[in-house]
Design goal:
Length: 523
């Protein structure tokens, strides 16, 4: 069947294939585009051959393309949409809207498309361009699990002044009973199924599951009213470190730590209503709270291995007292003492002649003072004043983290964590294989299963601790660029300022933010 002909050639259709038979060479290729627009059902498949045939007379017809159907529907791979293609001229479409509409309905039925069929204005269709004719309903993922924890009072000291006395208060010890509610998880919910264009149901994914983070030695999970509830195994003090909830045993001391109590060493948290007398020590795994308004004078050692320390009054160290915490230290004022905090060291009013060491040292920026001694931080030192008018030597030092060394440690710990995670997968797989046949196991096999469960729990706990350490190291690295010493009011002459390897001694009163700019200390 001849589709088109002129003096130069004729175009022939046979069995849905398109051929050209050249009669005379010289037809311009660019003019062939006009013929294609007049016959949109022609789809060229060999452009180079067409160009050659237009310039050569041949005795036979040469295949150059295919003959498209007038109307076709193309279905997406995921069966969620179908597109309509009309390979006719605009004029043809406008003159044959009803017949095209009827043909579309037949094609939809032939392709079993029953869902999400769209109303299409055929007169607005662009020739040879895809027009969406059917759209499936996608599945909707279910709600993620929701986790809520017991809300603990913020550990932030409050400085109040009534004209007669200064108060340094904060909510520190939060005590609960055995079985107390610590948190809960509302489970991830199923989603809403979808429907493809064939009317077939598409399963919906569940919401993302989340895990309660807690110390398994002091808390446990239980299913209650369709929720996973976190409860305390023991009565004690609730603590939260790096996003993990735990409960520490609590030792309350009504009076002082001294001759009547002896030195205190406790696997948990300690709250002391009075003080720690000269020469005595308190060592605890958890938090330590010393609430006597007179503070501490001449105590030997106050140390929290894993928690924070709060001293409502001040410290008169008499050059004897060491206060050390893995977390934060909160104290009203410090005289002649040595304080070491793994995180932040918070001082309400002043530090006099003391040695301070922490990730950040934060003295009240309105009227706090660091006079004499040495303050060494990894990230930030903040105070209102430093030194005094007598030019007492005072050292403010930022020892920045070594990035290269920290990255090596992070990589090493990350490799350990990956190995532990692989071990956990293997252990969980072993347990999963055994659980369906647990009723057939001998006592010896049950004992071996219990050992495997204990090993899994222990590995999980170690992995969680390692993960927290990695996150803390990464956080420390991010804060390296923020290293600064901020004196809001007066830094007196005699103040030594050092950040990294750059240092100077002030010779005049100044203030501001001291940091490294363009490789130099901006003092």
């Amino acid at each position: 069947m001849v589709i088109y002909e002129n003096h130069f050639f004729e175009i022939i259709k046979e069995d849905r294939k398109v051929y050209i038979h050249t009669r005379k060479p010289g037809f311009m290729l660019k003019d062939f585009e006009t013929i294609l627009r007049q016959h949109p059902r022609i789809k060229l498949t060999n452009f180079a051959l067409l160009k050659k045939e237009l310039n050569e007379v041949t005795d036979k017809s040469i295949e150059i393309g295919i003959w498209l159907p007038s109307i076709m529907i193309e279905i997406s791979r995921d069966k969620m949409s179908a597109s309509l293609f009309v390979y006719e001229t605009v004029e043809y479409i406008k003159e044959n809207v009803q017949s095209i509409q009827n043909r579309v309905q037949i094609l939809l039925a032939e392709n079993n498309i029953t869902h999400g069929i769209l109303n299409v204005n055929l007169e607005s269709i662009v020739t040879s361009k895809a027009t969406l004719i059917a759209q499936g309903t996608p599945p909707v993922q279910g709600n993620d699990a929701q986790i809520t924890y017991l809300e603990l009072p913020e550990r932030k000291p409050v400085i109040r002044e009534d004209g007669k006395a200064d108060y340094y208060d904060m909510n520190f010890i939060y005590e609960i009973e055995e079985g107390a509610w610590l948190g809960e998880k509302i489970h991830a919910q199923p989603g809403t199924p979808g429907i493809n264009i064939f009317g077939e149901s598409i399963p919906a994914p569940f919401g993302r599951d989340l895990q309660l983070k807690y110390d398994r030695k002091s808390a446990y999970e239980v299913e209650e009213d369709g929720k996973t509830v976190l409860r305390s195994k023991i009565g004690g003090v609730v603590e939260e470190h790096e996003g993990m909830v735990s409960v520490n045993h609590h030792l309350p001391i009504v009076g002082d730590v001294g001759i009547e109590t002896g030195n205190i060493e406790f696997n948990g948290s300690v709250s002391i209503k009075g003080t720690v007398q000269p020469g005595f020590s308190v060592i605890a795994n958890g938090d330590i709270s010393i609430e006597g308004p007179e503070g501490v004078s001449g105590a030997k050692l106050i140390k929290s291995l894993y928690g924070d320390i709060f001293i409502r009054g001040g410290i008169f160290g008499l050059c004897e007292t060491l206060v050390e915490a893995a977390g934060d230290i909160f104290v009203k004022h410090v005289n002649d003492a040595h304080l070491v905090a793994g995180k932040n060291l918070n001082i309400g009013f002043y530090s006099l002649g003391s040695n301070l060491s922490a990730h950040s040292i934060l003295v009240d920026e309105r009227k706090g003072k660091i006079i004499g001694g040495t303050a060494i931080a990894k990230s930030t030192i903040v105070t209102a004043c430093t030194g005094n008018r007598l030019e007492r030597p005072t050292e403010l030092i930022i020892n920045s983290i070594n990035k290269a060394q920290s990255l090596e440690v992070i990589q090493y710990k990350a490799s350990l964590l990956k190995s532990m995670q692989e071990d956990m997968v293997q252990l969980e797989s072993q347990i999963d294989r055994i659980l369906p046949i647990i009723h057939t196991l001998t006592q010896r096999q049950l004992a071996a299963l219990e050992i495997t469960k204990q090993k899994l729990a222990s590995t999980k706990e170690t992995a969680q601790n390692l993960d927290r350490e990695i996150k803390q190291l990464m956080n420390d690295l991010r804060e390296v660029s923020k290293a600064e010493i901020h004196v809001t009011k007066e830094a007196y002459p005699g103040t030594y300022i050092q950040i990294g390897k750059k240092s100077t001694v002030l010779t005049s009163i100044t203030n501001g933010r001291f940091l490294i700019e363009n490789g130099e200390l901006n003092v």
